[in-house]
């Protein structure tokens, strides 16, 4: 790695952590304020896309391998639907968050439920965005077999 | 948690949570096994739901415990339960079939993704049917469509044209979805609600430009999704180049679900009080008849069996639209009956085409020469499916045509009923022509002189049994169709009763 892009690279390194932090801020702000998993997921993925632009695709793939993203995509959805099933097993209707904390007077169950669901959404969206970037940036004619 | 209380939501969410799990499974046989078991479980749930609805009437389920019209409601009446059972039943037949077919056509490496997408598609289709919330219909329609685009594109390993077919489908499908959601947005602007029954109550008596535009947008959008002639451009190539199992599943479910959504929208949401419903019904009558003839005529001259059947699907949708356009109980019942029967006949035809493709690696008509001798069982299933498509007595198709003709005679229309009946019969003759061409090649045409009979790969039982089951169902409905027709008539009564108002959410 030469010194060619040193200003870009230093800037990216400086920005990386605040972007990720902002993503988590949006993520955990999603229960009652504007924000939530979708926006947070995109912002989180942007941090890694930026990293890939400055440091190269291979470097980024070493940090976050494509297999890991496939797992994130699938597991995020499972967290979402799993929350629904959890409320079923606790005796409520599908996605009835109140049963998560039935004794609360401050709708803590609703907070908790939406945070769980949004966490799944964030994970799925971030993984999907980065996976799409990998596939487009990789420019392979066919998706490689280990992408799945 | 009592299972029965949650029956309306389970057929939607069981495949939904299974799909990502399927993606994480190792390549090879396991994803298929898992997906097949899930499809059977889903069918069992949907069938139980149908039984419960038949006994107890409409079931309402409040998602998240939020009451209607604020929250999302799943409202299961008889029409819903029938289509739900149909979709999951077709999945339960096609998934076992898919194993060998997909291994050959898509390859071992993509099996987790393939079955994951297949399960997502199933989720979306069942969701469209289950929900009583207009916006939810859009969401599920897109869930099923997006996964369908991917599934169609997976045919690229056999024929690169699958990619352009999938892309065309993507563009047109997205236009359809956009139109649909624009229409919904306008309706929401006018009424402030998305619950179907609440929409109906608040739309009653409203007639202004916004509502008319909304109506036009939604009918056009859904028309694109259900391949209403002349909005069918995406369908033939998508069906032709998709993997065989995908074609069989889509041909028997996807457009049917869009027809169901159209029924819901026309009769549950808008109803007869709106003056513009008449316009749409008149349009359906003309376009349905035109589609029956033009698409059948195109099918006669196709040299690719899969494409021929795809055009025939467009024509068959014409029959359903025709039934809807009568706007009578018998007409809607005929449309619903044909939804079920057409699923059966197209499934058996496309499954047979898939078996032939597995054996000889082609679905060109010229390669079908002598199939009747080398693959007698598959050829027989194809012929029975074809007879059903034509509407020969003792097959499911006859029941459909009989009910439809009866409905046409009972309806008061701008066009003389007798003319419509004649047109229905005449268009069936076109089906005789194209099915006859395949039958001729399979049984009668001499194999090319000097060439040895092509002995293809033996088709595994896993593919033959599902094909036989669907074919047998065709015959069963043909012999004993009373129950189905009675059920569909009752469902049509339920649908039409809502269109005059009433119905509590």
UniProtKB/TrEMBL annotation, chain A:
Key word Cell membrane present: yes
Lineage: Bacteria, Pseudomonadati, Pseudomonadota, Alphaproteobacteria, Parvularculales
Na+/H+ antiporter MnhB subunit-related protein domain segment(s): 7-130
InterPro entries given in the database record: CPA3_antiporter_subunitB (IPR050622), MnhB (IPR007182)
Protein family per UniProt: Belongs to the CPA3 antiporters (TC 2.A.63) subunit B family.
A cellular component annotation (GO) from this entry: plasma membrane
Superkingdom of origin organism: Bacteria
Compartment list: Cell membrane
Membrane-topology descriptor: Multi-pass membrane protein
Keywords: Cell membrane, Membrane, Transmembrane, Transmembrane helix
Transmembrane stretches, start-end: 7-26, 38-57, 69-92, 112-136
Keyword Cell membrane: yes
Protein name (record): Multicomponent Na+:H+ antiporter subunit B
Automatic annotation (TrEMBL), chain B:
Coiled-coil ranges (or none): none
Domain NADH:quinone oxidoreductase/Mrp antiporter transmembrane, residue spans: 133-421
GO MF term set: NADH dehydrogenase (ubiquinone) activity
Pfam families, alphabetized: Proton_antipo_M (PF00361)
Domain of life of the native organism: Bacteria
GO cellular component: plasma membrane
Transmembrane segments: 6-25, 32-52, 72-100, 112-131, 137-155, 167-190, 210-229, 241-267, 279-301, 308-327, 339-360, 380-399, 411-435
Alphabetized InterPro entries for the sequence: CPA3_Na-H_Antiporter_D, NADH_UbQ_OxRdtase, ND/Mrp_TM
Cellular localisation: Cell membrane; Membrane
Any one GO biological process: ATP synthesis coupled electron transport
Keywords associated with the record: Cell membrane, Membrane, Transmembrane, Transmembrane helix
The UniProt record lists the keyword Electron transport: no
Record membrane topology: Multi-pass membrane protein
Family: Belongs to the CPA3 antiporters (TC 2.A.63) subunit D family.
Protein name: Multicomponent Na+:H+ antiporter subunit D
């Amino acid at each position: 790695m030469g010194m060619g892009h040193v200003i870009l690279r230093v800037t990216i390194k400086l920005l990386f952590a605040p972007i990720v932090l902002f993503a988590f801020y949006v993520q955990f702000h999603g229960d009652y304020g504007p924000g939530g998993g979708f926006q947070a997921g995109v912002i989180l993925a942007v941090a890694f896309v930026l990293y890939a632009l400055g440091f190269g695709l291979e470097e980024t793939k070493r940090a976050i391998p494509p297999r890991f993203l496939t797992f994130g995509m699938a597991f995020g959805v499972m967290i979402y639907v799993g929350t629904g099933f959890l409320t079923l097993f606790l005796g409520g209707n599908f996605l009835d968050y109140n049963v998560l904390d039935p004794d609360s007077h401050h709708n803590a169950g609703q907070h908790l439920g939406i945070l769980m669901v949004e966490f799944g959404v964030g994970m799925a969206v971030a993984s999907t965005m980065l996976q799409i970037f990998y596939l487009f940036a990789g420019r392979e004619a066919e998706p490689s077999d280990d992408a799945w | 948690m009592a299972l029965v209380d949650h029956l309306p939501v389970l057929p939607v969410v069981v495949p939904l949570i299974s799909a990502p799990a399927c993606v994480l499974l190792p390549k090879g046989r396991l994803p298929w096994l898992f997906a097949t078991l899930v499809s059977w479980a889903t069918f069992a749930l949907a069938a139980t739901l149908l039984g419960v609805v038949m006994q107890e009437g409409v079931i309402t389920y409040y998602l998240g415990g939020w009451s209607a019209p604020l929250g999302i409601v799943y409202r299961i009446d008889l029409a819903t339960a029938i289509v739900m059972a149909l979709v999951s039943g077709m999945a339960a037949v096609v998934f076992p079939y898919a194993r060998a077919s997909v291994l050959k056509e898509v390859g071992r490496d993509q099996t987790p993704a393939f079955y994951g997408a297949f399960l997502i598609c199933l989720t979306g289709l069942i969701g469209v049917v289950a929900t009583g919330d207009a916006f939810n219909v859009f969401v599920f329609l897109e869930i099923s469509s997006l996964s369908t685009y991917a599934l169609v594109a997976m045919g690229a390993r056999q024929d690169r044209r699958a990619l352009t077919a999938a892309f065309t489908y993507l563009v047109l499908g997205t236009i359809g979805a956009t139109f649909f959601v624009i229409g919904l947005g306008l309706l929401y602007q006018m009424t402030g609600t998305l619950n179907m029954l609440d929409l109906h109550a608040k739309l009653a008596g409203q007639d202004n430009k916004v509502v008319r535009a909304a109506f036009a947008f939604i009918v056009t959008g859904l028309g694109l999704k259900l391949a209403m002639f002349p909005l069918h451009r995406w369908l033939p190539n998508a069906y032709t180049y998709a993997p065989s199992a995908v074609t069989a599943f889509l041909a028997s479910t996807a457009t049917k679900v869009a027809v169901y959504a159209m029924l819901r929208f026309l009769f549950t949401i808008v109803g007869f009080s709106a003056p513009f419903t008449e316009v749409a019904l008149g349009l359906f009558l003309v376009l349905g008849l035109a589609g029956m003839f033009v698409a059948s005529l195109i099918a006669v001259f196709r040299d690719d069996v899969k494409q021929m059947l795809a055009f025939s699907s467009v024509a068959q949708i014409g029959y359903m639209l025709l039934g809807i356009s009568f706007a009578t109980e018998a007409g809607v019942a005929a449309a619903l009956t044909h939804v079920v029967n057409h699923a059966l006949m197209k499934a058996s035809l496309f499954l047979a085409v898939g078996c032939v493709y597995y054996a000889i690696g082609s679905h060109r008509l010229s390669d079908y020469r002598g199939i009747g001798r080398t693959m007698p069982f598959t050829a027989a299933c194809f012929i029975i499916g074809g007879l059903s498509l034509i509407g020969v007595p003792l097959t499911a198709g006859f029941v459909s045509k009989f009910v439809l003709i009866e409905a046409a005679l009972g309806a008061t229309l701008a066009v003389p009923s007798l003319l419509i009946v004649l047109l229905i019969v005449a268009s069936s003759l076109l089906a005789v022509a194209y099915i006859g061409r395949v039958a001729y090649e399979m049984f009668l045409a001499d194999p090319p002189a000097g060439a040895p009979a092509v002995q293809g790969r033996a088709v595994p039982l896993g593919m033959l049994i599902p094909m036989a089951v669907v074919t047998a169902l065709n015959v069963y409905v043909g012999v004993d169709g009373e129950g189905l027709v009675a059920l569909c008539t009752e469902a049509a009564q339920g649908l039409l009763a809502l269109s005059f108002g009433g119905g509590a959410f």
